[in-house]
Amino acid sequence: MMENKVFLSFAFYSTILILKMYVVAIITGQVRLRKKAFANPEDALRNGGLQFYRQDPDVERCRRAHRNDMENIFPFLFLGAVYSLLDPSPTVARIHFLIFCVGRIVHTIAYLLQLRAPTRSVAYSVAQLPCFSMALQILLATTPYWN
Amino acid sequence: MMENKVFLSFAFYSTILILKMYVVAIITGQVRLRKKAFANPEDALRNGGLQFYRQDPDVERCRRAHRNDMENIFPFLFLGAVYSLLDPSPTVARIHFLIFCVGRIVHTIAYLLQLRAPTRSVAYSVAQLPCFSMALQILLATTPYWN
Amino acid sequence: MMENKVFLSFAFYSTILILKMYVVAIITGQVRLRKKAFANPEDALRNGGLQFYRQDPDVERCRRAHRNDMENIFPFLFLGAVYSLLDPSPTVARIHFLIFCVGRIVHTIAYLLQLRAPTRSVAYSVAQLPCFSMALQILLATTPYWN
């Protein structure tokens, strides 16, 4: 598999996106500390008192961005891996991965910086295009096994 | 891997389930627009005003269905892939995948259409059976490496 | 792949962690029943009445633990699989997997038993170390394909 050029390209972009998700998690933690808004009483107690066991709109925004990543990046990790095994054109495959990767990075930036709608939705939709394309190609490739 | 009949079958059912999850995401967006209930102020502003930056029970229901999918379908993507490499009987493997796939589709329908309890819980439990079966088979197959 | 000792070790620890997540899901359901706090009106109706369609802090705690697992264990399933293909030292690889596995189990125990901060955060951070290490090694291994 590590001699499959398409798989290597897929592994590279996927790892970038996982690191991007880790960054969102770190930002969430930083916003919690800065805004003093903790999800657990034991965290609040360690950081000034139970009054900081509370929600905060900025923290919730980070969590929505993170959740949307889970909803979309995790399926990509599966679709991209199987698609890489279908022996696609390396150039076409890279375009798939690149569009998804850029789309998801723009999505995160638009979410966290609260960019004007529909920036975030457009980034989401663009990133879904290669996913649908890969899903359809997988379904076609597995046709002989449909029944 | 693409010559492994079990893996192809697994890839087929998994892709169907990922597409199903994308459908839940699309439905969530449609319900947000119809009920005018947006998760972000910037979305509400674009769709009539800040008063639509609010929660809605129907939207929350879609989100719970989606989250439950993440909790269960994503682990299946891993378990099914490794199980496919264990050289199981193609028929037995297909039964595993099919039960999970049908169970999860029924789960989503029961969730979104608010079918009477315990329809949804039963669908969830049935879908977990092949997952537990695959997990146990993986543990047994990796026994020589337990220490 | 099933002759790759590192992959077998990875498959073992990953399956343990997926089963651990299933246990969190089961605990969540048990706490819902015990505290009579259901996420859906149809579930509440079946369990005593609509007044039990409500949130509960203990249920929310379980759900936060489960969500944190999704945010961290699912990326590990990807990173560990690709890392296993990089032909690492079996001993070094096992140390990566073991640290992650133990870190995540401690994280869950600290979350559910509400252990004093920062037990949970330390477990989370320790478990992230092998993930960052594997991510960096994947990026280095895919260098020739960066452009």
Automatic annotation (TrEMBL), chains A, B, C:
One cellular-component annotation, GO? membrane
**InterPro entries assigned:** MAPEG-like_dom_sf (IPR023352), Membr-assoc_MAPEG (IPR001129), MGST1-like (IPR040162)
Q: Which GO terms describe its biological process?
A: prostaglandin biosynthetic process
Task: Report whether ATP-binding shows up as a keyword of the record.
Answer: no
Q: Please classify the protein's predominant subcellular localization into one broad category.
A: cytoplasm
Which prosthetic group or cofactor does it need?
Answer: glutathione
UniProt family annotation: Belongs to the MAPEG family.
What the protein does comes down to: Terminal enzyme of the cyclooxygenase (COX)-2-mediated prostaglandin E2 (PGE2) biosynthetic pathway. Catalyzes the glutathione-dependent oxidoreduction of prostaglandin endoperoxide H2 (PGH2) to prostaglandin E2 (PGE2) in response to inflammatory stimuli. Plays a key role in inflammation response, fever and pain. Also catalyzes the oxidoreduction of endocannabinoids into prostaglandin glycerol esters and PGG2 into 15-hydroperoxy-PGE2.
Q: What is this protein called?
A: Prostaglandin E synthase
Q: Which organism is it from?
A: Geospiza parvula
Please name the taxonomic classification of the source: Eukaryota, Metazoa, Chordata, Craniata, Vertebrata
